[in-house]
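EI: anyone free to look at a 89-residue chain?
SC: sure, send it
EI:
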Amino acid sequence: MTVVWIAVLSAIFPVVANYFLGFSFPLEVGTFVTFITLGVGLFALYMVAKIIYKILGIFEGAGKAVTKSKQDKNAEKIKKLEKHLKKKE
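SC: here you go
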Protein backbone atom coordinates (compact mmCIF):
# COMPACT_ATOMS: atom_id res chain seq x y z
CA MET A 1 0.00 0.00 0.00
CA THR A 2 2.90 2.34 0.72
CA VAL A 3 4.21 1.86 -2.83
CA VAL A 4 0.85 3.00 -4.20
CA TRP A 5 1.01 6.21 -2.13
CA ILE A 6 4.60 6.79 -3.26
CA ALA A 7 3.53 6.33 -6.90
CA VAL A 8 0.57 8.71 -6.54
CA LEU A 9 2.66 11.38 -4.81
CA SER A 10 5.41 10.97 -7.41
CA ALA A 11 2.88 11.44 -10.21
CA ILE A 12 1.50 14.58 -8.56
CA PHE A 13 4.94 16.10 -7.99
CA PRO A 14 5.49 17.55 -11.51
CA VAL A 15 2.12 19.28 -11.38
CA VAL A 16 2.84 20.78 -7.95
CA ALA A 17 6.36 21.74 -9.02
CA ASN A 18 5.04 23.52 -12.11
CA TYR A 19 2.25 25.50 -10.48
CA PHE A 20 3.62 26.23 -7.03
CA LEU A 21 7.43 26.01 -7.27
CA GLY A 22 7.95 27.60 -10.68
CA PHE A 23 9.50 24.64 -12.51
CA SER A 24 8.69 23.94 -16.14
CA PHE A 25 8.26 20.18 -16.40
CA PRO A 26 6.29 19.12 -19.48
CA LEU A 27 3.03 17.57 -18.29
CA GLU A 28 3.10 14.50 -20.52
CA VAL A 29 2.62 10.80 -19.88
CA GLY A 30 6.39 10.25 -20.14
CA THR A 31 7.05 12.77 -17.39
CA PHE A 32 4.57 11.11 -15.07
CA VAL A 33 6.02 7.67 -15.79
CA THR A 34 9.53 8.97 -15.17
CA PHE A 35 8.61 10.51 -11.82
CA ILE A 36 6.64 7.43 -10.74
CA THR A 37 9.62 5.22 -11.64
CA LEU A 38 12.00 7.52 -9.81
CA GLY A 39 9.81 7.69 -6.71
CA VAL A 40 9.21 3.93 -6.50
CA GLY A 41 12.89 3.26 -7.25
CA LEU A 42 14.03 5.56 -4.45
CA PHE A 43 11.55 3.91 -2.11
CA ALA A 44 12.91 0.47 -3.05
CA LEU A 45 16.45 1.70 -2.41
CA TYR A 46 15.32 3.02 0.99
CA MET A 47 13.77 -0.36 1.85
CA VAL A 48 16.97 -2.22 0.89
CA ALA A 49 19.03 0.17 3.04
CA LYS A 50 16.60 -0.34 5.93
CA ILE A 51 16.93 -4.13 5.66
CA ILE A 52 20.72 -3.91 5.57
CA TYR A 53 20.66 -1.64 8.63
CA LYS A 54 18.56 -4.17 10.55
CA ILE A 55 20.83 -7.04 9.54
CA LEU A 56 23.88 -5.08 10.69
CA GLY A 57 22.12 -4.43 14.01
CA ILE A 58 21.58 -8.18 14.45
CA PHE A 59 25.25 -8.86 13.67
CA GLU A 60 26.28 -6.14 16.11
CA GLY A 61 24.26 -7.76 18.88
CA ALA A 62 25.78 -11.15 18.13
CA GLY A 63 29.27 -9.63 18.03
CA LYS A 64 28.76 -7.91 21.36
CA ALA A 65 27.66 -11.19 22.95
CA VAL A 66 30.75 -13.00 21.63
CA THR A 67 33.19 -10.29 22.67
CA LYS A 68 31.59 -9.95 26.11
CA SER A 69 31.96 -13.67 26.78
CA LYS A 70 35.61 -13.49 25.67
CA GLN A 71 36.19 -10.48 27.92
CA ASP A 72 34.66 -12.35 30.85
CA LYS A 73 36.91 -15.35 30.22
CA ASN A 74 39.97 -13.11 29.93
CA ALA A 75 39.05 -11.33 33.17
CA GLU A 76 38.87 -14.70 34.94
CA LYS A 77 42.29 -15.68 33.56
CA ILE A 78 43.79 -12.38 34.72
CA LYS A 79 42.39 -12.87 38.23
CA LYS A 80 43.85 -16.38 38.39
CA LEU A 81 47.24 -15.10 37.25
CA GLU A 82 47.16 -12.28 39.81
CA LYS A 83 46.38 -14.77 42.59
CA HIS A 84 49.16 -17.03 41.38
CA LEU A 85 51.65 -14.14 41.33
CA LYS A 86 50.62 -13.04 44.84
CA LYS A 87 51.22 -16.56 46.13
CA LYS A 88 54.73 -16.56 44.69
CA GLU A 89 55.57 -13.31 46.43
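EI: The helical segments are 2-20, 29-88.
SC: 👍
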